[in-house]
């Protein structure tokens, strides 16, 4: 069986080649993203394998269906880039609901520590043999209150890490985890209480109609002055313009972003020799209290292996058994 693999990066190939060969699948790698202009590349393939910034809208789905493509295999957890309603009866859609929650949770803490202890600034200074400590004062995480929005696998691992630092955890989730209820140092609260009482807010929830711009002008107004915002989940959870305004007004003390609402035009590519036309992104990156990493929280050897193994298993189940536990449909 043959599969068209879109938005390929060098780090994708080893794991997919390994698990694909074991299952008798052949992946044809394309560097381009899947969209209406590139969908013709999928002609003659049994399925397509796509990532977060590939476009699987109605037009793309119709073309895939016409060409006989049967499966869209997402090698990620999020699926807001897929028109699931339009896909019904045309193509089957599977995803990787979890790969390495430790990868994302650990990256979130790495961003937080880098920000509050000025590690990124120290690295730049000492490379110039500047050993001054002026402007490098941070703060202890121990005893601080962190608000965690979303207590799925990643959120819960992040909570465990925060508890290891002696932090107090306020949690919010539409579907609370029973095993977290009553755990020492963890308390479920309503969203407004979380905004009002948290020193740090970390986002670990999916992007839905309810969570779109969950961090916006209104929610930021409820936060403590100097709050730190962390987002390693989905870019559109944060209204970037509202965040920028809150940073400028000193309401937000720092922001650590691994995702960005309009990232599809920039992330995963090298624009070091170009002028970025997205003024909000450019201004965020220019802020001394903002750290932006390019959607790399997932990028560990373990996570890449898990993603490939699960994706290949999903495809096998669909074609062999006719069903897959990781299939997603419009509800």
Describe the structure.
The protein has 331 residues and is an alpha/beta fold. Helices cover 34% and strands 15% of the residues. The protein is built from 11 helices and 12 strands. The strands form 2 sheets. It has a 7-stranded parallel beta sheet, with helices on both faces. α1 links the parallel β1 and β2. α1 runs parallel beside α11 and α4 crosses α6. The radius of gyration is 21 Å and the shape is globular. The mean pLDDT is 95.
What descriptors fit this protein?
about 325 residues; alpha/beta; seven-stranded parallel beta sheet; about 35% helix; globular
How far from one another are the termini? 30 Å
Unreliable spans: none
Average pLDDT over all residues: 95
Strand neighbour order, sheet with most strands: 8-7-6-9-10-11-12
Strand content: 15-25%
Proportion of residues in helical segments = 25-40%
Radius of gyration: 21 Å
Number of strands: 12
Helical segment count: 11
Secondary-structure-based class equals alpha/beta
User: How is the main sheet built?
Assistant: 7 strands, parallel
What global shape is seen?
A: globular
H and E order = EHEEHEHEHHEHEEHEHEHEHEH
């Amino acid at each position: 069986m043959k599969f068209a693999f879109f938005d390929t990066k060098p780090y994708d190939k080893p794991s997919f080649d390994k698990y694909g060969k074991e299952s008798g699948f052949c992946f044809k790698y394309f560097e381009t993203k899947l969209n209406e202009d590139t969908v013709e590349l999928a002609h003659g393939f049994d399925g397509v394998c796509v990532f977060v910034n590939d476009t699987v809208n109605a037009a793309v789905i119709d073309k895939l269906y016409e060409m006989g493509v049967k499966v869209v295999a997402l090698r990620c957890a999020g699926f807001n880039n897929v028109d699931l309603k339009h896909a019904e009866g045309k193509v089957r859609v599977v995803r990787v609901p979890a790969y390495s929650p430790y990868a994302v949770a650990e990256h979130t803490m790495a961003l937080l520590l880098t920000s509050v202890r000025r590690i990124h600034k120290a690295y730049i200074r000492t490379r110039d043999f500047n050993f001054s400590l002026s402007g490098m004062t941070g703060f202890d995480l121990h005893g601080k209150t962190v608000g965690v929005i979303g207590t799925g696998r990643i959120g819960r691992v992040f909570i465990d890490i925060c508890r290891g630092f002696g932090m107090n955890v306020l949690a919010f989730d539409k579907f609370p985890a029973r095993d977290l209820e009553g755990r020492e140092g963890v308390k479920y609260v309503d969203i407004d209480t979380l905004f009002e009482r948290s020193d740090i807010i970390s986002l670990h929830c999916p992007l839905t109609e309810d969570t779109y711009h969950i961090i916006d002008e209104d929610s930021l107004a409820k936060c403590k002055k100097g709050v730190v915002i962390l987002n390693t989940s989905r870019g559109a959870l944060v209204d970037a313009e509202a965040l920028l305004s809150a940073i400028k007004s000193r309401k937000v003390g720092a922001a650590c972003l691994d995702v960005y609402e309009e990232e599809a035009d920039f992330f995963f590519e090298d624009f070091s020799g170009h002028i970025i036309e997205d003024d909000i992104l450019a201004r965020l990156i220019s802020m001394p209290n903002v750290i932006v990493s390019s959607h790399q929280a997932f990028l560990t050897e373990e996570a890449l292996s898990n993603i490939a193994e699960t994706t290949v298993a999903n495809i096998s189940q669909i074609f062999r058994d006719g069903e897959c536990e990781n299939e997603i449909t419009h509800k």
